[in-house]
ABC transporter ATP-binding protein
Amino acid sequence: MEQAQLQPRVHPQETPIMEFSRLNVIYNEGQPNQVHALKDASAVIYPGEFISIIGPSGCGKSTLLHTLDGLNRLSSGKIRIDGREVNGPGGDRAMVFQDFALMPWHTVYENIAFGLRLEGKPKSYIREKVMHYIRMVGLEGFDGKYPHQLSGGMKQRVGIARAFAVEPKILLMDEPFSAIDEQTREIMQEEVLKLMLIEKKTVIFITHSIDEAVFLSNRILLMTVRPGTVVEELEIDIPYPRTLETKLLPKYQEYKSRVWDHLKGEVKRQYQKGEV
């Protein structure tokens, strides 16, 4: 990927790109097996931010992300994008999944082109966009390959390119690096940051990794045990672009400790509630 020299545009005086307020998601509502997954979750997100969401296992991180994508039914609350209330999926958001979610019968090219074809884009436009993102994620020469011919890291590059190709305002990423090895994971972290800065995208990112959250984010939303809510926002005051050397900074380690202290306290609460 080309080197990014840009800083995310994060100015509190800007109009938010997304707001969600007092989100409640209750599965099987009114039934004996009812589960209150999200409770009054709220946050404001500005254009160009990289937001990570982290919390103890089972706290509702993925539920929150899927709700923002319009895949879950809200029990109550509101989601706004550019001031407009949304109640379902839309082209202003795209999801990158942890299990790649590629179609095995399609080539790399066809997987990336899939969303553009659904939108009815002209063939010349599709080719231009697909080849642009193939280059951006470093998959030149692999456009005719099938998913079974790719490594885990390459499959995830395809998933990321497919999401960027439809030009969403907001990219939603659900633990996208959890299925790849540690070395590839660190490389992918740097490359996603570069791509996000070059393309000026807003990213909302789910992870279990404290290190990953601190490395990637402008802000981290810290969630409680279920029913999950956003209980704190931690701003990561480390300039972009970041490299692996960033992880050696004392300030970086301080941020990791703050997130760990939060998680440790929430896990203790889970034990007390008998949920672990």
About this structure: The chain has seven helices and ten strands. Confidence is low (pLDDT under 50) at residues 1-7. The first strand starts at residue 18 and ends at 27. Residues 1-92+204-276 form a domain with the Rossmann fold fold (CATH 3.40.50.300).
